[in-house]
């Protein structure tokens, strides 16, 4: 069964199509998604790559901003999500034009010397600068880069399964060509669509999760996820079932299932879901960003703990900018035409990226010290 058929069947099973959400509600869900991405990303960033046990020894399960003097900054997870949102504001009806626009945003992003860029993404952007077209720039990788930026696609096209798949494919293949990367990105987009539409239960949606990919590994992950939900296992116990006792890796078939499970296990509690996922350790910023996006899309901006939101201190890709982009996305849907991306003072990125890089290096030196 095709993915659109799966989605439509799920809607019929839950009796009716939901009414089209009002613009104000869409704006709240888009804001929840974008700001949830930033919160999960910034909270998880200082713990990225640290094992589950060491996180507990260092911070005793208390998740708060600690990247820079008790404040948080965002990384590539939020930046890429913003790029996708801006590309959607420029080209909401043409996936090829959207892909070209996103390609230029990634090219220019690399010029800012971002810290911690994924190897596959770096190779793909270098190919773009060498003259490869966006349709041929991707490299064979199943990293979680596409998944971390796909939630906003699912949310924006919450009522159009065909466009969701087309735009997710365009955004994925720009950098990653392994079908597993696209399967994981599509699963995130579909979860975001369900969160925005609020039509049908997440439990019913799980039965269609195997239809997002065809390989045996994905089918086994779906089986384990379904069984863990039925047994009401914790997020860390589910991570253990995937062999991630020391931490979640950057492999899309590790990070995405853990984020999806936390979203399904704690559907109405942003703080509990994010804490449970971050406690698993490993690629905490990306898992946090994906999960924050899904929880924010489901629950809206007000569900995000205020201290976590206020603790983000970043410019020019700020909380205010993300809120303006959310507003423009909802306005664009209401207008049914492209209204163009939000503008911001990009030269400030030179100073910002310098501060960010120095802070990342300081965190690296801190990890040489106890507790181990």
Fold topology:
Blueprint (H helix, E strand, L loop, with lengths): L2 H11 L9 H22 L7 H8 L16 H15 L4 H17 L7 H11 L15 H4 L2 H6 L4 H13 L5 H19 L4 H5 L9 H15 L4 H7 L10 H14 L4 H9 L5 H16 L6 H5 L8 H17 L13 H18 L6
Order of helices and strands: HHHHHHHHHHHHHHHHHHH
Overall mean pLDDT stands at 93
Largest sheet: none
**Which stretches of 5+ consecutive residues score pLDDT under 50?**
1-19
Helix count, DSSP H or I runs of 4 or more residues: 19
**Rg of Cα set:** 19 Å
The counted number of beta strands is 0
Q: What's the gist of this structure?
A:
The protein has 372 residues and is an all-alpha fold.
Describe the overall structure.
With 372 residues, the chain is an all-alpha fold. It is built from 19 helices and no strands. It has helices spanning 3-13, 23-44, 52-59, 76-90, 95-111, 119-129, 145-148, 151-156, 161-173, 179-197, 202-206, 216-230, 235-241, 252-265, 270-278, 284-299, 306-310, 319-335, 349-366. Helix 2 runs antiparallel to helix 18 (319-335), helix 4 crosses helix 5 (95-111) and helix 10 (179-197) runs parallel beside helix 14.
């Amino acid at each position: 069964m095709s993915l659109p058929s799966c989605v439509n069947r799920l809607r019929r099973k839950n009796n009716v199509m939901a009414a089209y959400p009002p613009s104000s509600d869409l704006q709240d869900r888009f804001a929840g998604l974008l700001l949830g991405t930033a919160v999960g990303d910034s909270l998880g960033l200082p713990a990225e790559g640290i094992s589950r046990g060491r996180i507990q020894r260092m911070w005793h399960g208390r998740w708060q901003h600690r990247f820079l003097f008790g404040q948080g900054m965002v990384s590539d997870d939020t930046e890429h999500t913003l790029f996708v949102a801006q590309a959607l504001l420029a080209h909401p009806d043409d996936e090829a034009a959207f892909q070209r626009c996103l390609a230029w945003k990634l090219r220019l992003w690399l010029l800012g010397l971002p810290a911690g860029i994924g190897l596959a993404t770096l190779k793909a952007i270098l190919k773009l600068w060498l003259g490869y077209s966006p349709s041929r720039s991707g490299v064979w990788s199943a990293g979680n880069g596409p998944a971390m930026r796909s939630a906003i696609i699912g949310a924006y096209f919450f009522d159009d399964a065909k466009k969701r798949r087309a735009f997710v494919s365009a955004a994925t293949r720009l950098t990653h060509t392994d079908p597993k990367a696209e399967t994981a990105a599509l699963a995130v987009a579909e979860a975001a669509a369900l969160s925005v539409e609020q039509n049908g239960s997440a439990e019913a949606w799980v039965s269609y999760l195997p239809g997002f990919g065809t390989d045996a590994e994905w089918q086994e992950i779906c089986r384990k996820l379904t069984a863990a939900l039925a047994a009401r296992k914790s997020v860390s116990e589910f991570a253990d079932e995937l062999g991630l006792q020391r931490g979640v890796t950057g492999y899309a078939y590790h990070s995405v299932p853990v984020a999806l499970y936390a979203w399904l296990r704690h559907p109405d509690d942003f703080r509990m879901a994010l804490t449970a996922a971050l406690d698993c350790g490993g690629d905490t910023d990306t898992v946090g960003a994906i999960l924050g996006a899904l929880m924010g899309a489901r629950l809206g901006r007000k569900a995000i703990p205020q201290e976590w939101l206020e603790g983000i201190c970043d410019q020019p890709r700020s909380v205010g900018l993300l809120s303006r982009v959310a507003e423009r996305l909802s306005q664009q849907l209401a207008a049914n035409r492209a209204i163009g991306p939000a503008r911001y003072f990009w030269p400030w990125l030179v100073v910002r990226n310098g501060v960010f890089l120095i802070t990342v290096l300081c965190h690296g030196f801190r990890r040489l010290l106890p507790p181990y």
